[in-house]
Amino acid sequence: MARCRSYLRGLAICITVLLLVSGVVMIGVGFSSIDGNIPIAELFDQLSSSDGLLALQVFGPITLVLSVLGICAATLDLKPVLLLFSALIFVEFVALMVVASPLVQVQAQMDSAVDEVFLNVTPLHRADSVIQSELNKLQTSDSCCGLRKFEDWENQLPVSCFCTPPTPRPISNPQPSSEVGNSNADCVMVGGDPPTSQITAQCVHSKPCGSILKSYLSFPIKLRIGIISAVATITMAAIALCLALGLEEYWKTPPVETTVDDFNRVKYQPKPSLT
After folding, report:
1. Beta-strand relationship, 203-205 and 187-189
2. By the 8 A CB rule, do 124 and 139 touch?
Protein backbone atom coordinates (compact mmCIF):
# COMPACT_ATOMS: atom_id res chain seq x y z
CA MET A 1 0.00 0.00 0.00
CA ALA A 2 2.84 2.37 0.81
CA ARG A 3 4.45 1.68 -2.54
CA CYS A 4 1.18 2.31 -4.39
CA ARG A 5 0.77 5.60 -2.53
CA SER A 6 4.33 6.58 -3.43
CA TYR A 7 3.63 5.90 -7.11
CA LEU A 8 0.43 7.96 -6.98
CA ARG A 9 2.22 10.84 -5.34
CA GLY A 10 5.03 10.82 -7.91
CA LEU A 11 2.53 10.62 -10.75
CA ALA A 12 0.53 13.52 -9.27
CA ILE A 13 3.69 15.64 -9.13
CA CYS A 14 4.50 14.82 -12.77
CA ILE A 15 0.97 15.64 -13.93
CA THR A 16 0.89 18.96 -12.08
CA VAL A 17 4.29 19.86 -13.56
CA LEU A 18 2.88 19.02 -17.00
CA LEU A 19 -0.08 21.24 -16.17
CA LEU A 20 2.38 24.02 -15.33
CA VAL A 21 4.02 23.61 -18.74
CA SER A 22 0.57 23.68 -20.38
CA GLY A 23 -0.18 26.98 -18.66
CA VAL A 24 3.05 28.46 -20.01
CA VAL A 25 2.13 27.24 -23.52
CA MET A 26 -1.34 28.76 -23.22
CA ILE A 27 0.17 32.11 -22.24
CA GLY A 28 2.70 32.00 -25.08
CA VAL A 29 0.14 31.13 -27.76
CA GLY A 30 -2.49 33.45 -26.33
CA PHE A 31 -0.27 36.52 -26.53
CA SER A 32 1.49 35.64 -29.79
CA SER A 33 0.54 37.25 -33.11
CA ILE A 34 -0.35 34.17 -35.13
CA ASP A 35 -3.16 35.94 -36.97
CA GLY A 36 -0.75 38.60 -38.20
CA ASN A 37 1.17 35.96 -40.15
CA ILE A 38 -1.80 35.00 -42.34
CA PRO A 39 -1.15 35.94 -45.98
CA ILE A 40 -3.30 38.85 -47.22
CA ALA A 41 -4.77 39.23 -43.76
CA GLU A 42 -6.70 42.26 -45.08
CA LEU A 43 -9.21 39.84 -46.60
CA PHE A 44 -10.11 38.40 -43.22
CA ASP A 45 -10.53 41.54 -41.13
CA GLN A 46 -14.27 40.93 -40.95
CA LEU A 47 -13.85 37.38 -39.65
CA SER A 48 -13.62 36.77 -35.92
CA SER A 49 -10.44 34.70 -36.18
CA SER A 50 -9.34 35.77 -32.69
CA ASP A 51 -11.88 33.44 -31.02
CA GLY A 52 -10.09 31.35 -28.44
CA LEU A 53 -7.37 33.90 -27.72
CA LEU A 54 -9.23 35.25 -24.71
CA ALA A 55 -9.57 31.74 -23.28
CA LEU A 56 -5.82 31.19 -23.56
CA GLN A 57 -4.94 34.64 -22.23
CA VAL A 58 -7.22 34.32 -19.19
CA PHE A 59 -6.95 30.63 -18.32
CA GLY A 60 -3.23 30.41 -19.03
CA PRO A 61 -2.17 32.44 -15.95
CA ILE A 62 -4.88 30.76 -13.85
CA THR A 63 -3.59 27.33 -14.84
CA LEU A 64 -0.04 28.44 -14.07
CA VAL A 65 -0.93 29.61 -10.54
CA LEU A 66 -3.08 26.58 -9.73
CA SER A 67 -0.45 24.16 -11.00
CA VAL A 68 2.12 25.72 -8.64
CA LEU A 69 -0.36 25.18 -5.80
CA GLY A 70 -0.84 21.57 -6.87
CA ILE A 71 2.90 20.90 -7.10
CA CYS A 72 3.46 22.25 -3.59
CA ALA A 73 0.53 20.27 -2.18
CA ALA A 74 1.62 17.00 -3.83
CA THR A 75 5.27 17.48 -2.86
CA LEU A 76 4.55 18.32 0.79
CA ASP A 77 1.64 15.84 0.99
CA LEU A 78 -0.82 18.45 2.27
CA LYS A 79 -4.17 16.70 2.00
CA PRO A 80 -6.41 19.77 2.64
CA VAL A 81 -4.49 21.73 0.01
CA LEU A 82 -4.78 18.80 -2.41
CA LEU A 83 -8.55 18.84 -1.99
CA LEU A 84 -8.63 22.62 -2.42
CA PHE A 85 -6.51 22.34 -5.57
CA SER A 86 -8.81 19.65 -6.97
CA ALA A 87 -11.88 21.82 -6.37
CA LEU A 88 -10.32 24.94 -7.92
CA ILE A 89 -8.93 23.12 -10.96
CA PHE A 90 -12.33 21.47 -11.50
CA VAL A 91 -14.02 24.88 -11.53
CA GLU A 92 -11.43 26.10 -14.03
CA PHE A 93 -11.99 23.00 -16.18
CA VAL A 94 -15.75 23.62 -16.37
CA ALA A 95 -15.27 27.32 -17.13
CA LEU A 96 -12.69 26.55 -19.84
CA MET A 97 -15.04 24.09 -21.54
CA VAL A 98 -17.88 26.63 -21.50
CA VAL A 99 -15.74 29.44 -22.90
CA ALA A 100 -13.93 27.33 -25.51
CA SER A 101 -16.93 25.38 -26.81
CA PRO A 102 -17.82 28.03 -29.46
CA LEU A 103 -14.47 27.33 -31.15
CA VAL A 104 -15.81 24.10 -32.60
CA GLN A 105 -18.73 25.97 -34.14
CA VAL A 106 -16.39 28.66 -35.50
CA GLN A 107 -14.28 25.97 -37.15
CA ALA A 108 -17.37 24.43 -38.78
CA GLN A 109 -18.56 27.81 -40.12
CA MET A 110 -15.15 28.94 -41.33
CA ASP A 111 -15.38 27.64 -44.92
CA SER A 112 -18.70 29.32 -45.68
CA ALA A 113 -17.53 32.59 -44.13
CA VAL A 114 -14.30 32.58 -46.12
CA ASP A 115 -16.16 31.80 -49.37
CA GLU A 116 -18.35 34.85 -48.73
CA VAL A 117 -15.23 36.99 -48.25
CA PHE A 118 -13.81 35.68 -51.53
CA LEU A 119 -17.05 36.54 -53.31
CA ASN A 120 -17.03 40.11 -51.97
CA VAL A 121 -13.53 40.93 -53.28
CA THR A 122 -13.93 39.57 -56.80
CA PRO A 123 -13.16 40.52 -59.53
CA LEU A 124 -9.65 40.75 -58.14
CA HIS A 125 -8.39 43.38 -60.58
CA ARG A 126 -10.74 45.83 -58.86
CA ALA A 127 -9.64 44.90 -55.34
CA ASP A 128 -7.42 47.06 -53.16
CA SER A 129 -3.85 47.41 -54.42
CA VAL A 130 -2.46 46.00 -51.16
CA ILE A 131 -4.56 42.85 -51.55
CA GLN A 132 -3.49 42.50 -55.17
CA SER A 133 0.18 42.88 -54.24
CA GLU A 134 0.01 40.30 -51.43
CA LEU A 135 -1.99 37.90 -53.58
CA ASN A 136 0.58 38.18 -56.36
CA LYS A 137 3.28 37.16 -53.87
CA LEU A 138 1.23 34.15 -52.79
CA GLN A 139 0.52 33.17 -56.40
CA THR A 140 4.23 33.29 -57.20
CA SER A 141 5.35 31.32 -54.16
CA ASP A 142 2.61 28.65 -54.17
CA SER A 143 1.94 28.35 -57.93
CA CYS A 144 -1.74 29.21 -57.69
CA CYS A 145 -4.05 31.71 -59.35
CA GLY A 146 -7.17 33.49 -58.08
CA LEU A 147 -9.11 32.72 -54.95
CA ARG A 148 -11.72 30.22 -56.15
CA LYS A 149 -10.46 29.96 -59.75
CA PHE A 150 -8.24 31.90 -62.11
CA GLU A 151 -11.35 33.55 -63.63
CA ASP A 152 -11.49 35.71 -60.48
CA TRP A 153 -9.10 38.03 -62.33
CA GLU A 154 -11.45 38.06 -65.34
CA ASN A 155 -9.43 38.98 -68.44
CA GLN A 156 -6.69 40.87 -66.57
CA LEU A 157 -4.55 38.01 -65.37
CA PRO A 158 -1.33 39.12 -63.62
CA VAL A 159 2.07 37.76 -64.56
CA SER A 160 2.15 35.69 -61.35
CA CYS A 161 -0.69 33.54 -62.68
CA PHE A 162 1.13 32.40 -65.81
CA CYS A 163 3.26 29.30 -65.97
CA THR A 164 5.24 27.31 -68.50
CA PRO A 165 3.35 24.29 -69.87
CA PRO A 166 4.92 20.87 -69.28
CA THR A 167 7.28 19.79 -72.04
CA PRO A 168 6.06 16.69 -73.91
CA ARG A 169 8.30 13.68 -73.55
CA PRO A 170 10.15 12.56 -76.67
CA ILE A 171 8.81 9.36 -78.15
CA SER A 172 12.32 8.03 -78.64
CA ASN A 173 13.31 8.60 -74.99
CA PRO A 174 10.23 8.22 -72.76
CA GLN A 175 10.54 8.88 -69.04
CA PRO A 176 8.46 7.50 -66.18
CA SER A 177 5.69 9.80 -65.07
CA SER A 178 7.33 10.18 -61.66
CA GLU A 179 10.35 11.84 -63.26
CA VAL A 180 8.34 14.48 -65.06
CA GLY A 181 8.44 17.87 -63.33
CA ASN A 182 5.46 18.39 -61.10
CA SER A 183 5.82 22.16 -60.91
CA ASN A 184 3.99 22.70 -64.22
CA ALA A 185 1.51 19.86 -63.98
CA ASP A 186 -1.30 22.23 -62.95
CA CYS A 187 -1.02 24.55 -65.94
CA VAL A 188 -4.10 24.99 -68.12
CA MET A 189 -4.51 26.79 -71.43
CA VAL A 190 -6.50 30.02 -71.48
CA GLY A 191 -7.74 32.11 -74.36
CA GLY A 192 -6.65 35.64 -75.20
CA ASP A 193 -3.27 37.26 -75.34
CA PRO A 194 -1.06 37.51 -72.26
CA PRO A 195 -1.02 40.96 -70.70
CA THR A 196 2.71 41.31 -71.17
CA SER A 197 5.11 40.47 -73.93
CA GLN A 198 7.30 38.57 -71.47
CA ILE A 199 4.77 35.74 -71.31
CA THR A 200 5.38 33.28 -74.09
CA ALA A 201 2.72 30.70 -73.20
CA GLN A 202 -0.98 31.22 -72.55
CA CYS A 203 -1.03 28.87 -69.57
CA VAL A 204 -2.05 29.70 -66.02
CA HIS A 205 -1.99 27.83 -62.73
CA SER A 206 -5.22 25.92 -62.33
CA LYS A 207 -4.83 25.53 -58.56
CA PRO A 208 -6.76 28.27 -56.70
CA CYS A 209 -5.18 30.11 -53.79
CA GLY A 210 -8.38 29.97 -51.73
CA SER A 211 -7.67 26.52 -50.29
CA ILE A 212 -4.19 27.67 -49.24
CA LEU A 213 -5.61 30.73 -47.53
CA LYS A 214 -8.26 28.62 -45.75
CA SER A 215 -5.54 26.40 -44.32
CA TYR A 216 -3.62 29.46 -43.10
CA LEU A 217 -6.77 30.91 -41.55
CA SER A 218 -7.93 27.69 -39.85
CA PHE A 219 -4.51 26.86 -38.39
CA PRO A 220 -4.74 29.28 -35.40
CA ILE A 221 -8.18 27.97 -34.44
CA LYS A 222 -7.09 24.33 -34.80
CA LEU A 223 -4.02 25.08 -32.70
CA ARG A 224 -6.12 26.63 -29.93
CA ILE A 225 -8.57 23.73 -29.97
CA GLY A 226 -5.67 21.29 -29.72
CA ILE A 227 -4.07 23.14 -26.81
CA ILE A 228 -7.36 23.44 -24.92
CA SER A 229 -8.11 19.74 -25.48
CA ALA A 230 -4.67 18.76 -24.18
CA VAL A 231 -5.04 21.00 -21.12
CA ALA A 232 -8.49 19.54 -20.43
CA THR A 233 -7.09 15.99 -20.55
CA ILE A 234 -4.20 16.86 -18.21
CA THR A 235 -6.59 18.67 -15.87
CA MET A 236 -8.84 15.62 -15.57
CA ALA A 237 -5.85 13.44 -14.73
CA ALA A 238 -4.63 15.95 -12.14
CA ILE A 239 -8.07 16.09 -10.50
CA ALA A 240 -8.27 12.30 -10.23
CA LEU A 241 -4.77 11.88 -8.78
CA CYS A 242 -5.00 14.74 -6.30
CA LEU A 243 -8.42 13.59 -5.11
CA ALA A 244 -7.05 10.10 -4.58
CA LEU A 245 -4.21 11.47 -2.46
CA GLY A 246 -6.40 13.95 -0.61
CA LEU A 247 -8.99 11.30 0.27
CA GLU A 248 -6.40 8.69 1.17
CA GLU A 249 -7.79 8.05 4.63
CA TYR A 250 -11.11 6.98 3.11
CA TRP A 251 -9.75 4.46 0.61
CA LYS A 252 -6.72 3.20 2.53
CA THR A 253 -7.33 -0.08 4.35
CA PRO A 254 -6.49 0.42 8.05
CA PRO A 255 -4.18 -2.12 9.74
CA VAL A 256 -6.08 -4.86 11.55
CA GLU A 257 -4.96 -7.01 14.50
CA THR A 258 -6.49 -10.29 15.61
CA THR A 259 -7.13 -11.43 19.18
CA VAL A 260 -8.47 -14.66 20.66
CA ASP A 261 -10.73 -14.51 23.71
CA ASP A 262 -11.25 -17.07 26.45
CA PHE A 263 -13.81 -18.93 24.39
CA ASN A 264 -11.34 -19.43 21.53
CA ARG A 265 -13.10 -16.85 19.35
CA VAL A 266 -11.07 -14.73 16.95
CA LYS A 267 -11.71 -10.99 17.00
CA TYR A 268 -10.62 -8.55 14.29
CA GLN A 269 -10.23 -4.90 15.28
CA PRO A 270 -8.32 -1.89 13.94
CA LYS A 271 -4.78 -1.68 15.10
CA PRO A 272 -4.27 1.27 17.49
CA SER A 273 -2.40 4.21 16.03
CA LEU A 274 1.01 5.06 17.43
CA THR A 275 0.21 8.77 17.48
Report:
1. antiparallel
2. no
Tens-place pLDDT, residues 86-117: 999 999 999 988 888 777 777 777 777 777 77
**Is residue 34 within 8 Å of residue 7, measured between CB atoms?**
no
What does each C-alpha distance from 253 to 77, 128, 249, 256 come to in angstroms? 19, 74, 8, 9
User: CA 79 to CA 247: how far, in whole Å?
Assistant: 7
Beta-bridge partner residues of 270 = 256
Omega prior to 80 cis, within 30 of 0: no
**For the residues of 222-233, what is the DSSP string, one character each?**
HHHHHHHHHHHH
Q: Is 120 exposed, middle or buried (0-12, 13-18, 19+ CB in 10 A)?
A: exposed
pLDDT in tens, 215-242: 887 787 788 888 888 999 999 999 998 8
